[in-house]
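User: quick one, sequence for these tokens?
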């Protein structure tokens, strides 16, 4: 198909980093991810760079930070840097009434380990969390990249009776690791807006510094000596902030490049119009589209009992995503009836779902922090690893990962199988109806 070939050529011409197939592997559980992370930190020889949305003060967070301090104590020249979102670090989880924040904890641990230097930095992508967050993912340990959407806390590392399911790839690649670290050093650590969080001299947030950082990051990309003509297993690192960034452009071309089948996985169903239109276009070309989304119960904002005094505005978010899904299914029901569009919902008791990624035919797949929702597309700083596998070395492993995801998915064949607003708890129903009357739901849709 001519249209597909045009977009595929765009992908082919991206700079690629060669990757050995025996140096990339997949983990299939939060427990295995936890073990790999602790093992890798313990064995690190010269560097550990961790970028993530948040690093929480709970049992898992304390264990990981303690492991980092022990590693630094044993190898004093070990270069350790942790970067989190500044605004997120200033608060606890919604519904948590603890007055001690993550920043307080970082500072406390730094004081009792005053002879060991491990900087923890906060990056403000905006002056308010709802206007954009630092959403880069990936840990670089020596020449190994541990790429996952997971943050550090008990739920992501399965230290409670429930877990948050994510993707976990372990990639040994010196050039890739150097590329990610170079971006951190060039664009983040040098920014005036960056704030050392475990230091008593925390800087006051200056709006102009944040604006300067956002302008810089809108055009900043990963820099590396790649190969355009390389036609074997390879990786393309991508990063982006703002609607017209390179990552968004590549996702758009990736969808249109499909020849037979595309699978899209997201925990938060709020697809931007540009992606919705591209999905409709490729459905009209006869290409199968499979979308795997979180059930509202598997959403990390879901709280089982909404009728108590702990009700919070964020409790409606899973329901808004479900409303979005139902509305899209109404529009595309004919494609579902013909089997061209496949909708699956993930749910496993009260565990939550944090998977995001794209698989196109058997040649391309993307690991990403991007949720394919409106705020990821426009407000947050996101990154991704696009893997090109023309010889399909990783097809078996990819299928194993998809089978692991599908173990807890349910096929939804009709929009009527999804609850309507009248079925929701009273508080949720009343709040949704109120915000709809004043059209505030359109504003919320832009922010979730």
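Assistant:
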């Amino acid at each position: 198909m001519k249209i597909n070939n045009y977009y595929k050529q765009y992908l082919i011409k991206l700079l690629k980093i060669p990757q050995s197939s025996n140096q990339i592997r997949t983990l299939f559980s939060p427990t295995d991810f936890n073990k790999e992370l602790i093992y890798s930190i313990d064995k690190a020889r010269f560097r550990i760079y961790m970028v993530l949305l948040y690093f929480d003060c709970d049992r898992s967070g304390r264990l990981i930070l303690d492991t980092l301090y022990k590693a630094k104590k044993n190898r004093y020249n070990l270069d350790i840097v942790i970067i989190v979102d500044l605004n997120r670090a200033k608060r606890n989880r919604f519904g948590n009434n603890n007055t001690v924040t993550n920043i307080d904890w970082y500072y406390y641990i730094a004081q009792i380990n005053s002879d060991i230097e491990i900087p923890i930095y906060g990056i403000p992508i905006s002056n308010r969390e709802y206007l954009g967050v630092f959403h880069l993912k990936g840990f670089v340990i020596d020449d190994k990249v541990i790429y996952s959407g997971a943050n550090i806390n008990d739920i992501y590392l399965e230290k409670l009776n429930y877990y948050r399911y994510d993707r976990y790839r372990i990639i040994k690649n010196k050039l890739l690791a150097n590329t990610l670290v170079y971006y951190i050093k060039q664009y983040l650590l040098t920014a005036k807006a960056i704030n050392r969080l475990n230091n008593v001299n925390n800087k006051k947030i200056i709006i102009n510094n944040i604006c300067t950082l956002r302008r810089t990051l809108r055009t900043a990309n990963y820099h590396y000596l790649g190969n355009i003509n390389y036609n074997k297993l390879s990786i393309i690192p991508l990063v982006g902030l703002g609607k017209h960034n390179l990552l968004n452009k590549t996702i758009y071309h990736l969808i249109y490049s499909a020849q037979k089948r595309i699978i899209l996985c997201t925990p938060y169903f709020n697809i931007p119009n540009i992606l919705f239109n591209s999905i409709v276009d490729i459905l009209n070309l006869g290409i199968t589209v499979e979308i795997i989304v979180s059930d509202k119960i598997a959403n990390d904002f879901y709280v089982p009992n909404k009728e108590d005094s702990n009700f919070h505005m964020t409790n409606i978010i899973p329901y808004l995503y479900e409303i979005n899904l139902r509305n899209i299914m109404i529009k595309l029901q004919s494609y579902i009836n013909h089997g061209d569009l496949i909708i699956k919902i993930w749910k496993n008791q009260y565990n939550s779902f944090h998977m995001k990624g794209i698989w196109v035919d058997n040649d391309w797949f993307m690991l990403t922090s991007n949720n394919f929702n409106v705020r990821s597309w426009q407000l947050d700083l996101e990154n991704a690893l696009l893997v090109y596998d023309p010889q399909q070395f990783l097809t078996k492993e990819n299928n194993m990962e998809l089978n692991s995801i599908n173990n807890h998915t349910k096929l939804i064949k009709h929009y009527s199988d999804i609850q309507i607003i009248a079925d929701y708890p009273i508080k949720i129903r009343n709040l949704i109806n109120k915000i709809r009357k004043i059209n505030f739901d359109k504003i919320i849709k832009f922010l979730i």
